[in-house]
Amino acid sequence: MPEAEAGSEADSEATPETAPEPSVWGGKRFVSLIYLGLIVVTGLFGYIIGLARPQDLNPQLFGVISLPPTPFGVALYGMVTVALVLGVLLMGVSYVAERYDTAAVDDDS
Question: What is the overall mean pLDDT for the chain?
Fold first, then answer.
């Protein structure tokens, strides 16, 4: 029994740990940087493909807006398309993440 009392005394004397500061590269900022990086890489690849000038290159943004088959036109097409598709997916994941109730899941177990 004395051991249990000694342990409880040690617990009462322990100082609470301070929460670590959030990382600069964590969470939403990291995902946003990855998102922007992918858009930039897509633009670079589109520019390179536009320099190669394939025969049947006819980029149409949203199937309506015809873009010139130049390096800039192909880069713009790729960047807007990837930004739109990934942006919609990212907003969907963000929406679900904000409304996810971890307490309700933890109570069921």
Answer: 79
